[in-house]
Amino acid sequence: MAMKKSVGTVIIDSFIGFLLLCMGFVTIYPFIFLLSASVSNPLDLIAGHVTLLPIGFSLNSYGYLMHSSDLWLAYYNTLWYTVVGVLVNVVMTVVFAFPLSRKDFYGRSAIMLFMAVPMFIGGSVNMIPSFILVLRLGLFDTRWAIIIPSMMSPMLVIMARIFFQSTIPDSLVEASRIDGASELRILARVVLPLSLPIVSVIVIYNIVIFWNVYTTALLYVPDVRYQPLQVYLQRILIANSPDAKALNAASADPSLSMSVAYQLRYSTIVVSIIPIVAMYPVLQKYFVQGSMMGAIKE
Predict the structure, then answer these.
(1) Which residues contact residue 99 at a Cβ distance below 8 angstroms, ignoring those fewer than 6 apart?
(2) pLDDT by 10s per residue, the chain, length 298
(3) CA distances from 44 to 3, 41, 51, 56 (A)
(4) pTM higher than the cut 0.90
(5) Is residue 142 within 8 Å of residue 219, measured between CB atoms?
(6) CA–CA gap between residue 99 and residue 92 (Å, rounded)
(7) Beta-carbon contacts of residue 264 (< 8 Å; ≥ 6 apart)
(8) What is the DSSP letter of 252?
(9) Which domains are assigned to the chain?
(10) Is the Cβ–Cβ distance between 221 and 78 less than 8 Å?
């Protein structure tokens, strides 16, 4: 039998529900506006008539984006950075975290302390030494300038170490050693199949990081041939117009061309966030499960 709620409880629950509804709307409003602005009539958009829902309907800006070679080059670069960066980071994180999770590994406390210290130092302090290091290693203005400095995250290593330590029994590792398995074989055949939740967390974190890479690319990759999608988007937003190649097919009407150029900023943002928005709901359950198991258990 359900208990009857008091008037005060109903009022409080209603207020909390209303507050959550408002917070949800504030969160989702930018996405709705971006989508509406990208498909509205360009002249209504530039006049400021679009606030929430689309006014009119036009896909001209998306049509122009399809003809922008610079956009697709930036898209390819972002995909390359994401795929290669995730693979390198996952391998380095797992290989580094597993030994640190074993109690018989000598010096693991000192290594963990050495890794934790940089987490408390701001990025601006590391910017100049990092730039000098990248320059002297010959990575400047190459794709690897984005991959190598981000090939391992101390935070993800700590999460993976805690997961391995709390989830993989020492007896299972010892039994594999008695059977003659090497450390790499134990990691590949025994540990990894049991560690899909934390691996999924590492993958999701790195997909978001490498897909949205901006500051590193701006500092280390001045060549537009290697710049990712976020830098291309920044050029459009600052210049207030897309590259000329995307507008060659525009209408002869100058006002329409200018309005479409303005609308292209919103269309480019929509195109850039679609993959990351579509991917997260699929991997969300692994993200939550891995984060909880890797961050709470000790």
Answers:
(1) 105, 108, 183
(2) 456 777 778 788 888 989 999 998 898 888 888 888 888 888 778 777 888 888 888 888 888 888 778 888 988 999 999 999 999 999 999 998 888 888 878 888 888 888 877 777 766 667 788 888 888 988 898 999 999 988 888 888 888 888 888 888 888 888 888 888 888 888 888 888 888 888 888 888 898 889 888 888 888 998 888 989 888 888 877 765 444 444 444 444 444 466 677 778 888 888 888 887 777 777 776 666 655 654 444 4
(3) 53, 5, 10, 8
(4) no
(5) no
(6) 12
(7) 61, 64, 65, 236, 241, 242, 246
(8) S
(9) 1-58 (no CATH), 60-298 (1.10.3720.10)
(10) no
Please give the structure tokens belonging to residue 205: 């974190």
Nearest residue to 160 (alpha-carbon basis) of 209, 200, 108: 200
Tokens describing residue 154: 């101390």
Structure letter (DSSP) for residue 108: H
Residue 158 to residue 101: CA distance in whole angstroms: 9
Amino acid in the structure at residue 68: S
